[in-house]
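pls design
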């Protein structure tokens, strides 16, 4: 029965991610090909979104994993589950409010001084209420994952993405009828669709009525226990998101002295609005699957033989999904780009990202296994080292003129990302071998 439940959960998540990514690709293709928006609009849209995603990552990956781990470990203790759930709601409601206010207050500084893209300020403000929504959503998803009702999480993700896709296209089309020349406003409206989508998802999950929310005591000690686990697990996810933010912060800043600010924004838009969108599709399946690993292993972490067997099965699944995707993206990079965007511009970038895909995906699976085993610091340390290398290489390669050096400019950013994830993967892989006593 346990095996059937796990298999059903994985299938539900895979189907959900296929629908989510198809819908996501639909509205991103719409924006990328929208007349007057293009790569510059994508640079503004994605720069604002990546800052939001940095805070969002805590909620979508770190918090659900922590809650699901805690609930899985206490699944047969109703009172403990009730306390965890109620304290998590209280804690992350506060964090959500502060996160929302932080984005609004610091939006000007982030857009002008951090991103060097002043037009992104409206996008950041438009996204700020979504921080609170997602904090509450994350606790609910963690609860359902912990009690092995992952199908509820899968449905909520599909609903959220459906609303986001419809809202994005509808809002942008309406604004185009009013004023099609203001790219910054269009980017902000497109990002506001994300806020609407998270609200719709929150309403859906709230109607499911999480058991135990009305019971248990609010305890500072219990909140501290949740924070103690959340910080290192969320840090891994934050660093992965920060990896993408490094490009948003550095590309325009350093490339504009060689190619001008307008072209630098186009290059950033190409990377964030096209290459990253395509490369993220296979990774999203692995991220979804990894959510089933943590509660599964947390319940059986003292049984090394079981952990070895389940780890092997997840790696086998990883190979079945990711290796063909990586080969396809590498060999057909130009054709894929031309099919989706009418140009093969960015072919080399997509090929480098296809190689990175192998290490990013393996890293996700290993991190989930380590988190389930209680090794919550190693993934964070490995990514800290990787991100530092990424930042140094970005600054180094962006200071080479891409017209003279093939590894200069935006290509250098992709090489830096590949290096970052290879180093992070190597560190956690060695740790996993030691933890499972595999020579």
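designed seq:
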């Amino acid at each position: 029965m346990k095996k059937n439940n796990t298999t059903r959960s994985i299938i539900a998540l895979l189907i959900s991610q296929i629908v989510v990514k198809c819908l996501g690709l639909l509205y991103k293709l719409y924006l990328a090909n929208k007349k007057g928006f293009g790569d510059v609009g994508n640079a503004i849209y994605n720069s604002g979104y990546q800052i939001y995603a940095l805070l969002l990552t805590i909620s979508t990956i770190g918090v659900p994993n922590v809650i699901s781990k805690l609930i899985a470990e206490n699944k047969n203790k109703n009172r403990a589950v009730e306390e965890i759930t109620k304290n998590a709601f209280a804690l992350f409601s506060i964090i959500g409010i502060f996160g929302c206010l932080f984005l609004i207050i610091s939006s000007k500084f982030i857009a002008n001084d951090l991103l060097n893209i002043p037009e992104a300020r409206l996008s950041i403000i438009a996204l700020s209420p979504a921080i609170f929504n997602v904090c509450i959503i994350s606790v609910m998803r963690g609860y359902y994952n912990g009690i092995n009702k992952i199908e509820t999480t899968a449905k909520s993700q599909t609903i959220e993405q459906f609303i986001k896709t419809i809202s994005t296209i509808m809002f942008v089309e309406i604004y185009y009828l009013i004023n099609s020349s203001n790219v910054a406003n269009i980017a902000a409206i497109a990002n506001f669709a994300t806020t609407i989508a998270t609200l719709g998802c929150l309403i859906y999950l709230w109607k499911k009525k999480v058991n135990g929310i009305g019971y248990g005591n609010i305890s500072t000690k219990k909140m501290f226990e949740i924070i103690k686990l959340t910080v290192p697990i969320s840090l891994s996810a934050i660093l992965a998101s920060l990896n993408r933010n490094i490009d948003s912060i550095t590309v325009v800043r350093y490339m504009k002295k060689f190619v001008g600010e307008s072209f630098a924004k186009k290059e950033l838009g190409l990377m964030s609005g096209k290459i990253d969108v395509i490369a993220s599709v296979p990774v999203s399946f692995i991220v979804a699957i990894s959510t089933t690993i943590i509660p599964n292993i947390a319940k059986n972490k003292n049984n090394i033989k079981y952990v070895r067997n389940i780890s092997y099965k997840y790696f086998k699944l990883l190979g079945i999904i990711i290796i063909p995707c990586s080969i396809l993206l590498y060999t057909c990079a130009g054709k894929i780009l031309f099919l989706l965007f009418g140009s093969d511009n960015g072919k080399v970038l997509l090929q480098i990202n296809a190689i990175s895909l192998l290490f990013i995906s393996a890293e996700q699976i290993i991190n989930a296994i380590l988190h389930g085993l209680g090794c919550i610091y190693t993934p964070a340390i490995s990514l800290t080292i990787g991100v530092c290398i990424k930042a140094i290489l970005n600054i180094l390669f962006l200071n080479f003129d891409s017209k003279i050096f093939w590894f200069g400019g935006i290509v250098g950013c992709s090489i830096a990302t590949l290096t970052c994830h290879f180093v992070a993967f190597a560190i956690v892989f060695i740790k996993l071998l030691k933890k499972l006593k595999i020579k």
